[in-house]
Amino acid sequence: VTDYTGFNRLLRERSPAMLRTAFLFTGDHYLAEDLLQAALTKTYLRWGNLREEAAGEAYVRKVMASIYTRWYRRKWNAEYPTENLPERGVLDNPYGASEDRLLAAQLLASLSRRQRAVVVLRFYEDMSERDVAEALGMSVGTVKSTTSAALGKMRTLSGGARPPGYGGPEEVGA
Amino acid sequence: VSDDRDVGRLRDGLRGLAGSDSTPLDTTALRFRVTERARRAQARRRVAGAVAVAVPFTAAGLWFLADRPLTDPGTVTPGSSPTATATLTATPSTSSPSPTESSLSSGPTAIAPPTVENTLNTSLRVSLVVRSGPKSQDGRYGATWEVSWSGGVWPVSQVLIEQDPARTVLADNTIQVRCDARPNPGSLRGDITFASPGPHELVAVVRAVSCTGRVDRQTDTDVWTWSGPTSS
After folding, report:
1. pLDDT digits (tens, 9 = 90+) for B33-88
2. Are A107 and B10 within 8 A, CB to CB?
3. What's the pTM value of the predicted model, to 2 decimals?
4. Are A139 and B49 in contact (CB under 8 A)?
5. Which pLDDT does position A144 carry in this prediction?
6. Is the peptide bond before A81 cis (omega within 30 degrees of 0)?
7. What is the mean predicted confidence (pLDDT) over B136-143?
8. What is the tens place of the pLDDT at every residue in A103-152?
9. Quick one: pLDDT band at residue B124, thresholds 50, 70, 90?
């Protein structure tokens, strides 16, 4: 019989943090919650196979990235590109808005799902290039080139110029 | 240096953006939804596993039933008669030709494995008889052929008369019959003429086709030499 005590603790204590990562992936609170639910469900089903409880959170994040980048064809088509930035929180709270947050929001909105996942895992989760590559099923070289391109795009954005095709996430790179 | 500064700005921006979602998370409700989704996923897996086991057996059963005549005995009717002189006589099935078919008419559930085996072993039997006929006005040698058949699993739908060794088709008769009809015994007769008295080697080819396109093909050969008109 699988003991879910550790899982319950993970869900109770770490869900808010994992939800923030999911929010960076999706740019929408409700999609983020759905993504987190899906990842936690998969983790719950595999909980008995995880060797140590500490690996649970890393596993959830990995599953979340995997679902977000690979599952979108049937699950995440509800996310439509729009002319507006997915920055509701920033706009709702103008006193907390900063140039860096706007830049990050603009950058994420201009990236494909896989590129966005690389940026979030690499620069928000502080995962190594190797771990990111493993989590997303891509080569380390692809992670490097993606991060380099993302930084270049951010420089362009901070210079005031919008990247070509700006207006929403492009799915061509997924 | 520029890269480090950009990375720093990006990290700060992502942290700020992640924290901007101030909607509270109800972990109790989240746990309920997660366990509910997991329960449904497990149930789907169990159903999928059961289906995976059942599908081969179901498919085998349907495959067999699709090839079986489950309706009342069909009546073999003369076809469009490609050769005008061909005559078809069919024997109506007044009783079940075999215990196997009798059991089939009672419905699919009555089919038992031994019965299936016996049915499949029921072979189509074909007989060809050629008799001499009168000479035609242009001096050709007349003959009358008669093909009769019985048994088999599927109804006969085509009768060919060929001449060896080139297997030249002398007569091609299609019989209009439902593919799911009971395979009744029948016979077909026709006239033909030859330039020489023979001997001629004639082959009757009888084809029975199932609704799924499976073919049972049987032949019978008769070597015939014209010997003057014969009464049939």
Report:
1. 898 888 888 888 888 888 888 887 888 888 777 665 544 443 443 433 333 355 55
2. yes
3. 0.48
4. no
5. 93
6. no
7. 87
8. 888 888 888 888 899 999 999 999 999 999 988 888 999 999 998 888 88
9. confident
The sign of the dihedral angle between the CA atoms of B86, B135, B225, B165 is negative
Distance from CA of A137 to the nearest CA of B (A): 23
HEC secondary structure over chain A? CCCCHHHHHHHHHHHHHHHHHHHHHHCCHHHHHHHHHHHHHHHHHHHHHCCCCCHHHHHHHHHHHHHHHHCCCCCHHHCCCCCCCCCHHHHHCHHHCCHHHHHHHHHHHHCCHHHHHHHHHHHHCCCCHHHHHHHHCCCHHHHHHHHHHHHHHHHHHHCCCCCCCCCCCCCCCC
The two tokens of residue B171 are: 């007569």
| C-alpha closest to that of B129 among B208, B198, B232 | B232
**Whether pLDDT at B174 is above 70:** yes
pLDDT reported for residue A120: 93
Query: Does any CB of chain A come closer than 8 Å to the CB of residue B39?
Result: no
Task: Tell me the residues of A at the B interface, defined by beta carbons under 8 Å apart.
Answer: 8, 11-12, 15-16, 19-21, 23-24, 29, 32-33, 36-38, 40-41, 44-45, 87, 89-90, 92-93, 96, 98, 100-105, 107-108, 119-120, 123-124, 150-151, 154-155, 158
Least CA distance to B20: which residue of chain A? A89
Q: Is the dihedral of CA A77, A80, A85, A90 positive or negative?
A: negative
How far is B204 from A47, CA to CA, in rounded Å?
Answer: 71
For the record, the structure tokens of B75 come out as 């009546």
Q: Six-digit token pair at B76?
A: 């073999």
Res A158 pLDDT > 90: no
Cα B101 from Cα B111, distance rounded (Å): 10
- Give ipTM to 2 decimals: 0.74
Tokens in use for B159? 């009768």
Q: Tell me the C-alpha distance between A85 and B13, whole Å.
A: 15
Q: What is the mean pLDDT of chain A?
A: 77
User: Per-residue b/e over A12-33, b at no fewer than 16 CB within 10 Å?
Assistant: eeebeebbbbbbbbbbbbebbb
Token pair belonging to B122: 């029921």
